[in-house]
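Annex B. Sample input.
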Amino acid sequence: DEAFRGSNTSGGVVLLVSEALAMAVSKEPCTFSNQLWIRISGTDNRNDLLVCAAYMPQESDSKADREVSFQALRDSAASFQTANSDVVIAGDLNARLGAPTNAAEAACIGKHGQKGDRSANGKLVVSMLLANGLTNVGGQVPPPTSKVPGASHWYTRADPVTKTKNTIDFILVSRSLTSRAIKFQVDYRHL
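Annex B, continued. Sample output.
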């Protein structure tokens, strides 16, 4: 397996690529800290797939830092998403999307996401989803409540102290990819 790392010497983001895909993968220039893009070249008339691993600033960071970081992610997604390429953004976005407020938001957020108020980062994510034609895969189908007692929404972090369940990790995809059988699975037994 081959690993592509961002420019940070500690922390940051990484993408692991299977050996079977390694020949079709190239690293895109890193234009912003904690956002790593790779291109998986399409074969047999399939689109290229641009995959980003992202770690976005926390809500406690300055508004300016958060806005610049999300704008860079939004701009990169827009530039990579073409007629011949699709986009996947995965990572810790430090956001709460809240419940959709209209049909357009319901299509991109999903109705099975974390309930409650939308955070400041959540507003930036929803704006990016709408502007870039992306969909949050995690909120599109109900969570496996029959298998996980108390799982009323897709969550990716269970706080060991407060026992709250939060969604901090997301998978955002080009809408053209949602017609394929993409499943978002979290093994809640280890959270």
